[in-house]
Amino acid sequence: MPELPEVETIAIQLHVSLAGKKIVGLNVLNPKSFVGKETDVVGHKIISIHRRAKVLVFELSNGKFMLFHLKMTGQLIYVDNSRRIVGGHADHDWHAVLPNQHTRIIFDLGKDQTLFFNDMRKFGWCKVMTIAEVGEYFTKYGPEPLPKVDISYLETRALRMKSSAIKKFLMDQNVISGIGNIYADETLFASRIHPKRLVSSLTDAEWKCIADNAERILKLAISKGGTTDSDYVNAYGKKGGMQDYLAVYHHTGEPCPNKCGGVIERIVVGGRGTHFCPSCQKEPS
DNA sequence: ATTTATGTTTACAG
DNA sequence: CCTGTAAACATAAA
User: Fold this and answer.
1) From CA A227, how far away is CA A225, in angstroms rounded?
2) pLDDT in tens, A101-117
3) Is the CB of A173 under 7 A from strand B?
4) How many angstroms separate the CA of A273 from the C1' of B6?
5) Are A197 and A165 contacting, i.e. CB atoms less than 8 angstroms apart?
6) Does pTM top 0.85 for this prediction?
7) Which CATH number fits domain A151-276: 3.40.50.150, 3.30.1360.120, 1.10.287.990, 1.10.8.50?
8) Which listed residue (A51, A54, A127, A224) is catalytic?
9) Nearest nucleotide from residue A2 CA, by C1' atom
10) Whole-angstrom distance, CA of residue A125 vs CA of residue A7
């Protein structure tokens, strides 16, 4: 589930395995998944990998950058003789034989080392950009939620989007980068704020609460490796740890973890499935 | 056998 | 400027 903590985890883990390695071959199985020229990447080393928003940024030795957006179902899987390091959407491809029917791009790193880009629904992409294009691309994104977003920035921004539901606002990448459906629900539950509350109705204290909880939950998720799994080829069942800490996401029908007596409900906000406790998170009047 | 939901973002209609 | 919907696509669950 690639939101900020998952993409961060993938970036850290792939950096360790891939930094310094040269791309010796490229095989694009789905042309729409790769935007760029083969000569942009083949023959060049991977200098570093980092994250911005929900995007992975590979810096190459020729001064170009390779950006990956995993969207809903993208995965990056590194395989060598002894290890398999994976990140992204959690499905059986994590342990399946590679390449398979969902493999869209294969990067040959030589010496039996391979990086696979798998993406079941083909929404994700890999694009080669110059430094100028990278800068341009990210200008549209809002600030990172780590470290904590400035409260007055949020309030100023909310002034222009008065009638936006707070959940939609939190997931808007132009406002803040990296928060998706899961962490928006979790942040609002921890803040005891109903996801449909209009941003114009939020108090200073509530904005502070949101920024604090977003920071705390995202940090926790990163420390748990998000929902990303990293292990050896044969080791099934070793999941990233954040699932165990989710209070409301995909907990529809279960009792509220605050033991308030409420039951977690699922509604739709901004077109997305939304989970909350109707007792802890009061409906806007 | 159909319909519905899915972690994301963009384009477009109103 | 704003908001809501569909669409890019495949699969599992209902």
Assistant:
1) 6
2) 889 999 999 999 999 99
3) yes
4) 9
5) yes
6) yes
7) 1.10.8.50
8) A54
9) B7
10) 14
